[in-house]
Amino acid sequence: MMRNKIIVAGLVALLLCLGFVPILQANAQQDKTRAEQFVQIADRSREHVISIRDMAASKGVSTSKMDALIVEADSLLKEAKTFLADNKLSDALAKATAAMRKYTDAIKSLGGTLKPQAQESERQKAEIEKREADRIERIRVSVKAVPNARPELVKEINDRLVEAEGLMKNQPPNRPEARPMNSKTAEALDLVRKLEREDMQMTQRINEYLRGVDAQIQKIAGDIETAAKRGANVESLQKHLAELQQLVEGAKKKVIDGDRNGALKDIGKIQELLNNIKREIIPISRPVQERPNRGP
């Protein structure tokens, strides 16, 4: 039974560590950063495996096969670091991935002598815990994807996730196909949906504001054209209008790119410039009044 617990603890810890890999693959922006992160994950995997190896050895469990796999994994990890230092990024990724697989195999090697029924029970428990850990991690990623979220709401979500992780460790095994979700994970998920709704509403308000500015720009452009025909000097206004249009287009792009904070900063500048243009255009937009002829 002690050996079973050691193996399960090791696999779950390693699966939690490796659970970051799909996220890195989805969100990494640069090859070098991606390679560095994979090597770091492999390093953390090694720490988990060595900890489990020492625990197993202290309980009298034979670790000879595990030791051999760790040596192979260490060699792969060393090569990955060398390739990374030489800026051979694809090779570094491949070696780091292979090292992680070897570390996983090293933990699995402890289960070779377990009874089939015990093995299946432990496999199911590890699979359930991995699925729940994946859900929790996906929620964390979703929260990070909303950089302008209310801090109090983010804190509430993170508190629920910490509680969910505690429940996950204490829940009894269940059928993997049931795909259970503990109550705290469900609460956190509901809060994330609320956060995403708030973010969507704010994005909609920003877009509506920018559409309103577009309409004002069209009117101002017409007023400037009319004033120019009357002989007014509109050079300064035309320059400010071009600056305003550039700010609006920049804000629109930031909204598309998900940089809502940047868009909000631009909106502050847009409103200030818009007010200045309106004040500047008022005197020249009025028809010139002919002074009455008072005679000599």
Tally the helices: 10
Structural category is mainly alpha
Largest sheet: none
Shape: elongated
- Cα-based radius of gyration, to the nearest Å: 31 Å
Please state roughly what percent of the residues sit in beta strands, choosing from under 5%, 5-15%, 15-25%, 25-35%, 35-45% or over 45%.
Answer: under 5%
Instruction: Give the H and E element order.
Output: HHHHHHHHHH
Give the overall pLDDT as a whole number: 77
Count the strands? 0
Helical content, roughly?
over 70%
End-to-end Cα distance: 118 Å
Low-confidence stretches: 18-29, 113-117, 173-179, 288-296
Question: Mind sketching the topology for me?
Answer:
Blueprint (H helix, E strand, L loop, with lengths): L1 H17 L2 H7 L3 H28 L5 H22 L3 H20 L7 H29 L6 H20 L12 H47 L5 H23 L2 H26 L11
Provide structural commentary.
The protein has 296 residues and is mostly helical. The protein is 81% helix and 0% strand. The chain is elongated.
In short:
The protein has ten helices and no strands. The chain has helices spanning 2-18, 21-27, 31-58, 64-85, 89-108, 116-144, 151-170, 183-229, 235-257, 260-285.
Tag the structure with descriptive keywords.
single chain; 296 residues; 0% strand; 10 helices; mainly alpha
